[in-house]
Structure formats: C-alpha cells, structure tokens
Design a protein that fits this description.
Blueprint (H helix, E strand, L loop, with lengths): L2 H16 L3 H22 L3 H12 L6 H42 L1 H9 L4 H42 L10 H27 L3 H6 L1 H18 L4 H11 L2 H34 L8 E9 L9 E12 L7 E8 L23 E5 H7 L6 E6 L2 E11 L6 E5 H8 L6 E6 L8 E5 H44 L1 H9 L4 H8 L4 H30 L9 H32 L7
Parallel strand pairs: 3-7, 4-6
Antiparallel strand pairs: 1-8, 1-9, 2-3, 2-5, 2-8, 5-6
C-alpha cells in the first residue's frame, strides 16, 4: 500500500470517528460561521466607503458635516469589527481546543493504534488539522457570504442617519485574509496543538490508556477533597461537577463571554442616552453663532446673548504619543444660555485665575481628575492650568476657562470674543449659525448608530451564551451516556437522571457568574475607553444593579432551556435500551 493511499485511509477513519460527534461539530461550525459573519457584516459596509471619503480628503475637498459624521461612524464600526473578530475567534479557538482535548482523551487508544501502524506524529496531526480545515473553510466562507448579504442593513442605516445615498458594499483583499485565512489558520493551529500533546506520549501508554487513568485518579482525589467541605445535600453534585474540570473551565468561559457581550451592548445603548442628555441639559440657547473674525470690543455685542472666546488647544499628557486635541472656551460670567453642572447637578461658576473645567470624557477616558495640574498648548505656547471641576454637560471635546484668563494667555483685550449663544437670531450674521434643531438632529444620528451596535451585541451575547452553555452540557452529556443508561435500567426517571448528571452544573454557572462579574465589567470599561480613543467620540460606560440582575436571570433562563432539551434526550436514550451503543 502506498503512503498516499494509507494517509487517505487514515483521513477517512478519523473523519468517520469525528462525525460521531455531529452535534459538537455542528456547533463549532456555527461558532466559526458567526465569527466570520460578524466581521464581514460590518466590514463589507466599511472599506469602500472609507476609501471614497479619504480620497475626497486627499484631493483637498472639505467634507460636509454628514460626510464627516459618516467617516467617524465607519471608523467606530471598524474598531467594532476587529473586536468582534478577535473575541469570537478566541472563543472558537478555545472551543476547538477543548473539543479535541476531550475527543483525544476518549480516543487515546485510537491514536496509539495509528502510531503502532507506522503513522508519524506529523501525519496524524496533519490529518486532524485537515478535518478542521474543511469545517472551518466551509463555515467561514458561509459567514462571509451571509455578511455580504446582510451588510445592506448597515448601508441602509448609514443612508437614513447621514443622508448619503451613494454608500456601497466593498472590501479589501487584506480584510478577506483576516476574516477567512486568519480564522482557518488559528483553528488549525489549535487543533494541531491539542493533537500534538497526545501524540508525544508513548504508543504503549496510549493503547493501555494508563495516562488517562492516572489523570482521572488525581482529578477524583482533588474533587473529593473540595466537595468534602460542602453541605451533605450538595456534596455528591459538587463531586460530580469537579471530576470534569474541562467542563468547569468552559462554563467559566461561556458565562464570561456572555456577560461581557451583554454588559457592553446595554452600556452602548445607555451611553447614547447619557451623551444626548449631556449635550442638551443646561444648553438653553436656540442658536450658537461662531463669527468669521475675532471681535476685540464687546460694546456692540448682540442683545440678550452670552459671549465666548473659543480657540483650538491641546493637552499634553505624560506618556501619551500625541496630545489630546480640544477646544478651550473662554466664558463670560452671569449668563444663563449655558449652565454647566457637575455630577451632583450643582451649577458650576466661571473658573477663577488659571482654573479650568473639563468634560466627563477627559475624566473617564484619560483619567484626569479634579485638582490635577495640566499643560495646555495654545498657538504654540504652553500654559499651566489646574482642573477646578468636571462639567458633566460640557460640549464634546471642549474645556472651559474664564474669558479674561484666556485673553491674557492669547495677548488679546479682555473684551475679545468670536462667538455667542443666543435665543434670538439677528439678520445677516457674519459667521456660522448652528440652530438647536440642527444640533439635536446630529445627536439623534449618533444615537441611532450606537443603538444599532448595541442591538447587534445583544444578539451576539444571547447566541454565544446559548451555544457555549450548550457545549458545556454536551461534553458532560457525551461523557455520561453509559451512566445514564445504567441509571435508566435501574428504574430512574429521566428527570432524576438529569438532576444527578446534568443539573449539577447549575451551581457551577452561578459561581462562574460571580467570579466573572467584575472582570467582565473591567473588560467592558476598557473596550469603551479604547473605542473612545480610537474614534474620538466619547462612549461612556454605563451599568447598574438592574442590568446585573437581568443578566443573571437571563443566564439561568438559557440554562433552563438547554437543560429541558437534554432531559428529553435522556428519555430517548433510556427508551432505546441499546446497551451496546454506550459500553
């Protein structure tokens, strides 16, 4: 028999063996497809449109307000696409690794037989990696096609939000590499790594299954010691659960991923409302007028208006690659068109001397606090200032200071201004006028974009949680088939068998929820912070006790649904009474 023929026979045998785990393979394929789909769903709506907008910028054209808003949305969604890809790829790779670890643990004799027949470790690893290659290629390409089809949803949303009709689908070749080739490569690497650890063992040990028995004795000893500290009524359940540490680890991962996605999605939804409120509460003016030229004397100022002086500035941060670009706004005292307040809803007065107010974004994203000393650069000259407070309803990318102090830094008369807020609009204003209705319309567009991302994440959290929790129980279900049949023949009902072998993981899920709660919140905060820095848009992190309780109830509900499905499966196994299938 030739080498090629023997390898083909090996591939057929391993493929036949793997197909006996059709349920797990189908769920792995679904996870891989979801990984590819979520990346391409977003990426197909980004690449070509971003190229078109950047081409306009390079040509010297000035983007309209809607085009600039679309470009910012595309940049934010590009970051989300990468986050989706990395999170789901890590989850898929981990599930693949655990599946093969579980599979090889049950089929050590099979691998030992392959080695005894003369197959090298490299050939065996390559054979199992080829099986993963076929599954992951089919799943990732399916996800790419579905992503292309459903990306029209995002394109329609861009048109509705920004009024730009010529948005189109398109993708770069490198994006295809990331969404398909990278996914396939990582999953094949996870397979090879898992397989290689078993192939390194001696052939005799694999055939005798001695290593697995030794590992089981160690695990059982640890499980017995830990379960002994639990109450008598829960001791058996805890011992059964802890004797399968892989299932416990996967439970931790499943709950952690579901929590992170759900908390992040709800936070994105709520952050839209917070940003909207911060840009409307206390902003009592109907018109914001930005003059074309600086006015040095305020004696002829418009009636019933509050003057301001607004200039570009940058905040120098130690350790930062680039300064933080802001606008510094010099305020006049006594006005009522703009009322800034802190988080306790107390009104802030105009800062004295070199004190400034910063927005909530600088505090949450960059860690600046009240009382910190910072360096502001205006027109190339550095100026020291201290943070007098945090204005919760500050305008985006703005810090505030007394107009007198700002004119002193700029070497201008104290009466200088280049804009004003007013509730009445004079005819023939020599500058740019932003009406309240226009401001609210722009804010509404941002709210729609963020809420759309939030809904996508909520769906992801539910699907990922359902799949991973199902995988946890499926591993246990496959390990316990023989025990289920024996208990069934002894007269136990399916519900009683379920309580003994499947329901024991409910406390594990609860413990996983408590263990992963704070890490999930910390991860979501960091993701929000990273997105805010990358896109330049403030995306505040939001959560509360109601969200946490809803999440806990949701995970328990998913577990209950999956548990009911397995109870029905147990009944089918017991009714078959086909002992030879499980012994």
């Amino acid at each position: 028999m030739s080498i090629r023929t023997s390898e083909r026979l090996l591939f057929k045998e391993t493929g036949r063996s793997l197909l006996k785990n059709r349920s797990y393979a189908a769920l792995l394929g679904l996870l891989v497809m979801l990984t590819s789909f979520m990346y391409f769903f977003v990426q197909f709506s980004i690449d070509t449109n971003m190229d078109n907008l950047r081409r306009l910028v390079r040509s010297g054209a000035t983007l309209t307000e809607d085009q600039a808003g679309l470009l910012a949305a595309l940049q934010a969604n590009a970051s989300l696409a990468w986050m989706f890809l990395l999170c789901f790829l890590a989850m898929s790779a981990f599930a693949t690794f655990l599946f093969y670890r579980h599979y090889f643990g049950k089929h050590q004799r099979e691998i030992g037989a392959f080695k005894a027949l003369g197959f090298s470790n490299r050939v065996i690893v390559r054979t199992y990696a080829a099986c993963t290659l076929i599954l992951s290629t089919a799943a990732s390409l399916t996800g790419a096609v579905l992503g292309w089809i459903f990306s029209g949803v995002l394109l329609d949303a861009y048109t509705a939000s920004y009024g730009i009709a010529d948005v189109e689908r398109g993708i770069h070749a490198v994006s295809l590499v990331y969404g398909v080739i990278l996914v396939i490569s990582v999953l094949c690497a996870a397979t090879a790594w898992s397989c290689a650890t078993f192939c390194k063992r001696e052939t005799a040990l694999l055939i005798s299954d001695a290593a697995a028995k030794r590992e089981n004795r160690t695990v059982n000893r640890i499980a017995d010691r830990i379960s002994s500290v639990w109450p008598e009524s829960r001791r058996v359940s805890v011992r059964i659960a802890l004797r399968k540490p892989v299932t416990c680890v996967l439970s931790l991962i499943a709950v952690g991923v579901s929590m992170s996605l759900f908390i992040m999605s709800v936070s994105l939804y709520m952050s839209s409302d917070k940003v909207y409120r911060s840009q409307t509460e206390g902003h009592h003016y109907a018109y914001n007028v930005r003059l074309d030229e600086m006015v040095l004397d305020d004696t002829g100022k418009p009636a019933r208006s509050d003057l301001y002086l607004k200039v570009p500035a940058s905040i120098q941060m130690s350790g930062a690659r680039e300064p933080i670009q802001q606008h510094i706004v010099g305020l006049s005292g006594g006005g009522n068109t703009l009322e800034l307040h802190d988080r306790n809803n107390e009104r802030l007065t105009v800062p004295e001397d070199n004190g400034i107010w910063i927005g909530a974004a600088l505090e949450e994203v960059y860690g600046l606090k009240k009382g910190d000393m910072i360096t502001l650069e205006l027109s190339g000259a550095p100026h020291s200032a201290f943070i007098a407070g945090v204005a919760e309803n500050a305008e985006s990318n703005s810090v505030y200071i007394g107009r007198k102090q700002l004119t002193d830094w700029l070497g201008l008369p104290e009466t200088s201004y280049n804009g004003y807020w007013s509730n009445e609009l004079e005819p023939a204003v020599p500058g740019q006028v932003t009406a309240r209705a226009d401001r609210l319309a722009a804010l509404d567009k941002d709210v729609v974009s963020n809420r759309m991302s939030a809904v996508i994440n909520q769906l992801l959290g539910c699907v990922a949680g359902l799949i991973l929790i199902y995988l946890v129980l499926l591993l246990n279900f496959q390990d316990s088939k023989k025990d289920m049949l024996v208990l069934g023949l002894l007269g136990y009902r399916p519900k009683e068998i379920n309580d003994m072998l499947i329901s024991v993981y409910r406390p594990v899920m609860t413990a996983a929820f408590l263990l992963m709660l704070f890490p999930s919140i910390a991860l979501c905060k960091e993701i929000h912070r990273s997105l805010s820095i990358q896109t330049g848009d403030y995306i505040p992190f939001q959560t509360n006790i109601g969200i946490i309780l809803s999440l806990f109830i949701g995970i328990q509900l998913i577990y209950w649904i999956v548990e009911k499905a397995f109870t029905a499966k147990i009944g089918k196994i017991v009714r078959r009474e086909a002992v030879f299938n499980f012994v």
